[in-house]
Write a structure and sequence with these properties.
Organism: Urochloa decumbens
Structural class: alpha/beta
InterPro entries: HAD-like_sf, HAD-SF_hydro_IIB, HAD_sf, OTSB-like, Trehalose_PPase
Keywords: Hydrolase, Stress response
Pfam family, one: Trehalose_PPase
Radius of gyration: 20 Å
Oligomer: single chain
Number of helices: 11
Order of helices and strands: EHHHHEHEHEEEHEEHEEHEHEEH
Family: Belongs to the trehalose phosphatase family.
Strand content: 15-25%
Distance between the termini: 42 Å
Bound molecules: ligand L263DTV3
Low-confidence stretches: 1-47, 69-80
């Protein structure tokens, strides 16, 4: 395959931008307070350990269920916040008239169910078939916090675009989609954080060493970022684990700490995230500043919010949050779990097949 290696350094983050709302239907629920990602970087001081533990609790399924039980008392608000992308399917696809749909899919919790062991987060064969069908009709990308090779090992579809390490490692298929002649003809390869590789290696080693005595803690090397999992750590040790991670990162002001689903994510402080990856891929496909595209982004995690925000800012696109519980999100629709994601993808394929067969008046 012909590769085009583009390695572009991206400047460190200057500041965390204030959350902003965009006039994009349907509206977000009012009165839901936005939870900031916890930051530990040159730009922001770390919160108290108590703050971290609160945030760790918030990402645990037991606590999420308790929060949802409260929200259910106000069911009207929950329903309004996240209309189902399946229930509102016709409305979702109506916006695509005359436009090319491009599909972006997160992996963990979206295509595969969340499991205790990150190495065993397999995708079902039926889900793989659904994603393959989607990719036959629309340019399709997987956007994951995992390292690109690992997510490819799970998905195993060569025809897709892959953005691993939260979008910091992007590679396109050998035969790329081209909307315009200006679109990149050669395979895409983009690694904006390559200068951080040695640092990430060091931090990975230190984190493995430091956390080895905390039962259940697991450190995962995701190439341009590192995950520290606490799903299998006793809640009594969460604060000790948070302390350890923070103490390692003290010596690395160019790295920041964010949190996902029962996982700490150590990432370079560059202005690059899943949202930037989405924009980069649209541009590579030939859709830069283009109105005749409708991006769909489906994801379940806090890091997917960066992509949902980009869609809101563009005022064009469909953000779908995968969650059983009401959450503060910039997505416009929801699906409850990977099984519903699969149903939605199959429906999208069927709708496209039928609309091609339909006579154009
Ligand atoms: O962007 P994603 O594809 O959603 O990746 C985010 C993290 O996903 C994985 O961790 C999550 O899934 C695991 C398996 O189900 C689960 O055990 C863990 O608690 C979840 O946080 C992956 O292992 C991480 O490296 C990714 O950063």
């Amino acid at each position: 395959m012909t590769k085009q290696a583009v390695v572009v350094p991206v400047p460190p983050e200057a500041a965390v931008p204030a959350p902003q709302l965009f006039p994009y239907p349907p509206p977000r629920a009012a009165g839901v307070r936005r939870k900031q990602c916890l930051q530990m970087s040159g730009a922001g001081a770390p919160g108290r350990v108590g703050g971290w533990v609160e945030s760790m609790r918030a990402s645990s399924p037991t606590h999420a269920r308790a929060a949802a039980a409260l929200a259910d008392d106000d069911g009207r608000r929950a329903a309004w916040m996240h209309p189902s992308a399946l229930g509102k399917f016709e409305q979702v696809v109506a916006a695509s008239k005359g436009k090319q749909i491009v599909v972006f899919l997160d992996y963990d919790g979206t295509l595969s169910p969340i499991v205790d062991d990150p190495d065993a987060a397999y995708m079902s064969d039926t889900m793989r078939r659904a994603v393959r069908s989607v990719a036959k009709h629309f340019p399709t990308a997987i956007v994951s916090g995992r390292c690109r090779d690992k997510v490819f090992e799970f998905v195993k579809l060569a025809e897709l675009y892959y953005a691993g390490s939260h979008g910091m490692d992007i590679k396109g298929p050998a035969k790329a989609y081209r909307h315009t002649k200006a679109a990149k003809a050669k395979g895409v390869l983009f690694q904006p954080a390559s200068q951080f590789l040695p640092m990430i290696e060091q931090v990975h080693e230190s984190l493995v060493e430091k956390t080895k005595d905390i039962p259940g803690a697991k450190v995962e090397n995701n190439k341009f970022c590192v995950s520290v999992h606490f799903r299998r750590v006793d809640e009594k040790s969460w604060s000790a684990l948070a302390d350890m991670v923070k103490s390692v990162l003290k010596d690395y002001p160019k790295l920041k700490l964010t949190q996902g689903r029962m996982v700490f994510e150590v990432r370079p402080t560059i202005k690059w995230d899943k949202g930037k990856a989405l924009e980069f891929l649209l541009e590579s496909l030939g859709f830069a500043d283009c109105a005749d595209v409708l991006p769909f982004y489906i994801g379940d995690d806090r890091t997917d919010e960066d992509a949902f925000k980009v869609l809101r800012k563009r005022g064009n696109g469909v953000g779908i949050l995968v969650s059983k519980h009401p959450k503060d999100t910039s997505a416009s629709y929801s699906l409850q779990e990977p099984a519903e994601v699969m149903e939605f993808l199959l429906r999208l394929v069927e709708w496209e097949r039928l609309s091609k067969a339909r006579p154009k008046w």
